[in-house]
Amino acid sequence: MEQEGATKPAKKLGTKMLPSVRTTETMKNVGKLAFRPDSFTIRQIMQQLGLSYGTVRQINARSLAGKKRCKTKTHHLSDKQVAQRVLKVPSLLEHIKRVNSDFYVKHVLKPLFKKNIPEFYGKQAKSVALHHDSAAAHTALTTVWFLQNNNYRFIPAADWSNSPDLSPMDYSINRILRDVCGNIRPKILLV
């Protein structure tokens, strides 16, 4: 083909043969954006400088020695939301103060054991054991007496543990429930 005058197409270089994007100038620019008091996120840095996500991560990990952790997205409240919370928090705190052991037994435990547990567990309802945390209403003598007098199974405070291996409800079931029910909006709000 070469003798007849046809030329070979130019050989395409692989990405490994291209010059590195991580130049000293690029690293300085990433460092400036990352070390500001109101530092940019990785996505903001990549959009600002026209770099890929991986390049910004590599510069942060290797060149900046991982000294700067780019901030994650957080929820910011608008001024209107802040004003609403300032107005509504005192009334919420008043509602929370009402939750003493008598309120807890009457409005939470009784309906739970009479209606919810039999509905969820059916024939196995008697084998369900209640696992509390250390909230004042949960540890009050009135609550413990109610559970003991009605022969409901519960884990006493002396047997509680903060270990994720020994407290599966806090670390396992809540995650599963959140994953399963996360996108479901409640039709009735129980207060």
Automatic annotation (TrEMBL):
Stored Gene3D superfamilies: Ribonuclease H-like superfamily/Ribonuclease H
Alphabetized GO MF terms: nucleic acid binding
Entry-linked InterPro entries: RNaseH_sf
Domain of life: Eukaryota
Protein name: Tc1-like transposase DDE domain-containing protein
